[in-house]
Amino acid sequence: MTISVWRYSHLALAVSSFLLLTLLSITGIILAFEPVSQKTQPFGVNGFSQITLAQSLPALRKAYPDVSELTVDANQFVKIKATDANGKNVEAFVNPLSGKVLGFPPKKNDFFETVRSLHRSLFLHEVGRAIIGVTAFLLMLITTSGVALIIQRQRGFKHFFKRIVRDSFAQYYHVVSGRLSLIPILIIAVSGTYLSLARFNFFDTRKENIKVDFDNINPTPARKATEINVFKNTKLSEVESIEFPFSEDVEDYYTIKLKDREIAVNQITGDKLSEVVYPKAVVYSNLSLDLHTGRTNIIWALVLAVAAANILFFIYSGFAITIKRRANQVGNKFKANESNVIILVGSENGSTYRFAKAVHQQLLKQGQRSFITELNNYTNFPKAEHLIIITATYGLGNAPTNAAKFVNLLKKHPQRQNINYSVLGFGSHAYPDFCRFAFEVNNMLSQQSWAKPLVDIHTVNDRSPQEFEIWAEAWSQQSGFIIESFTNLKIAKKHRLNSFTVSSNTATDPQDDTFSVRLKTRRMQKVTSGDLLAIYPANDHRERLYSIGVIDNEIQLSVRLHEHGLGSGFLHSLTPAQKIKARIINNKHFHFPTKSPEVIMISNGTGIAPFLGMISQNTANVPCHLYCGFRHSHSVAGYKSVLDGGKAAGKLKHLHIALSREGNKQYVSALIIQDADFMANVLSKKGTIMICGSLAMQKDVMNVLDGICEIKTGKGISYYQSHNQILTDCY
User: Fold this and answer.
1) 579 within a domain of the structure (yes/no)
2) Are residues 20 and 51 in the same domain?
3) For residue range 376-430, what is the model confidence (pLDDT) as tens digits?
4) Are 557 and 519 in contact (CB under 8 A)?
5) CB–CB of 189/143 below 8 Å?
6) Rounded-to-integer distance, Cα 427 and Cα 425, Å
7) Taking 90 as the threshold, does the pLDDT of residue 438 lie above it?
8) Helix H or strand E encompassing 25
9) Residues 26 and 161 in one domain
10) Which of the listed residues 294, 449, 516, 574 has the most CB atoms within 10 Å of its CB?
11) What is residue 191's predicted lDDT score, i.e. its pLDDT?
């Protein structure tokens, strides 16, 4: 059964029954306090559960020779009907060991009786009981569908009680409270349904009458009540009622009604004259009544009250979640076929939508024809220039409900023009398969001839505004559109810039136009290889990002000079001792994985900078292998000292170089194909592959790795991406 069926069923059931469930919950809370009030009355005795009939019956008959009946109620209070020495009728709660009167039965509470009638039948007698029975059954279905949704959300039953990722108040506590009160609510629903079915004779609850063969009753041997085995082996707590003999004649006998049977006992000899076992339906009905009302246990009665209160909270939070989802429906200013920016959203609970809407609104303010819709509405977009996909992952790496059709739609509707795309994944590291669906979408788009990656795939953990901002800045840089003000997402509009001093700037390589820049930073400035340096070449809002390598406490950038390039031109013009203003962006998803058993680094020339820093900082000597592609052999010369030093110190285990314009003229992807078994082995033992450089290089490498993963490990590359074993930082 699909996730959407569970969710829609859950909602439909809740909507169809919420009024009655509200009424039943309120009355249920009130009725739960009736057993509490009853059990506080002073009619009980200590050690009641250990008292046998052999102890109690002789004492009661001595105190009341004319006792006719004994009953034990749900509170374990013993009540007798008898005649005292003065010939007066006595109906009282007594101490079963002494016969001492503890009190008299109080009158029924009119308030509780009215509430009970409303709870059972809505004052509509049998019709009302039928309606209540159906409602109890619907509650059972709601609970079952809710369990299915939690299992889907938690990625399987074994993770059922693991940490819940915090969404909105209503969403979070709807799930948390649901897990905590699951069993009590399910018991309420099942027992209520069973009692209703029993009421309308769906089960056989007929009890046979006791039949005694009076012709074969033995008058001997006479035994005292304390010597009769039935009395010695029966606890008073097992008894519902006892009818005493009317006289001392052998034909008069004890009739003992227990929870599951009825027994006739010879009052003289103690022989068992007859026994009738009740149908199982009778036992189940009594058990259901005990569980549904909490009449036998004060703690359980309070648990039921809390569970009923939780049902009220579920009704509130469920509607709050539904209203929030509906609020995410965006009214588009432009039609899909006339928009140049298409934003497709995949969200199960609606939380991802607010990020997508923030981007959408920013673009509209800039005069762009932006269109936002669900991934399931993907089709041909004839005027589209940019495609932004913002999606969460649901279940075991599955697509959210509103994105489940996207894979098939992507195959069905190839775009007729080239479109720049960007994928942003939302998820939580608390779950396995982190952002797996987003990785799969990105990988599928990379295989479309019309789709051109604008920036590398980005992920956001626990809806972090800071991580979202990194994507927004990267996308803005490449698209030329300004995405900067997200006050509703608590992202600062202005950033504090720090001062950096240029320590060196190499000449441009005439063959591939690359150069390296080193910057000194303040001692207190926290920076790690893999972080990003944001510069503002024109001292305005335009920002450019570069991957950082930290070597000898200096920041190193590896840059390719582009004609008329704003960022590369600015960096190329820097001179030693010159100061610039910039800021460090923590890019922790691309930090060196110190706990990984083995690390493979893959880059082209301009992506080598962070890897040089990671090698330099690999003090734990984690086995590292660098696969790097250059155009010419002399391009490697500028990095030779760091690489040779890393190998000598055991920080770099192997170095593999591919040259695209010399010798065999191969790209770095060819080296990966040659070492396919090694790549698969590293991934299989939970090692890490890191990729940094151009998006074109990344596409080739990822295609090769995807084939290796499918053939060698039987798992697609998205599996390893979602488990943080393949990390990318490309541009």
Assistant:
1) no
2) no
3) 999 999 999 999 999 988 766 778 878 889 999 999 999 999 999 999 999 887 6
4) yes
5) yes
6) 7
7) yes
8) helix 3-39
9) yes
10) 294
11) 95
Average pLDDT rounded to a whole number, residues 475-481: 89
CA dihedral angle for residue 389, residue 392, residue 397, residue 399, rounded to 10 degrees? -60
Q: Do 518 and 555 touch, CB atoms closer than 8 A? A: yes
* Beta bridge partners of residue 518, listed in sequence order: 504, 556
What residues pair up with 690 in beta bridges, in sequence order?
601, 727
Amino acid at the residue 110: D
- Residue 430 burial (CB count, 10 A): 15
394 occurs within a structural domain: yes
- Please tell me whether the peptide bond between 105 and the residue prior to it is cis, using omega within 30 degrees of 0: no
Could you tell me the CA-to-CA distances from 84 to 78, 245, 248, 617 in Å, in that order?
Answer: 17, 16, 18, 96
**Which residues, 6 or more positions from 2, have their beta carbon under 8 angstroms from its beta carbon?**
401, 404
Is residue 421 domain-shared with residue 390, that is, in the same domain? yes
Tokens found for residue 359: 């981007």
DSSP 3-state of 505: strand
Contact call for residues 275 and 262 (beta carbons, < 8 A): yes
In sequence order, what are the beta bridge partners of 723? none
Element (H, E) at 502: strand 498-505
Q: Residue type at 642?
A: V
Place of tokens 């059922």: 160
Query: Which runs of consecutive H residues, i.e. helices, occur in 247-399?
Result: 280-293, 298-327, 353-365
Residue 187 lies in a domain: yes
Residue 238 belongs to domain spanning: 44-103+212-277
Neighbouring residues of 312: CB distance < 8 A, sequence distance ≥ 6? 22, 25, 26
* 514-520, strands of its sheet edge to edge: 544-547, 532-535, 579-585, 498-505, 514-520, 554-560, 549-551
Domain CATH number, residue 364: 3.40.50.360
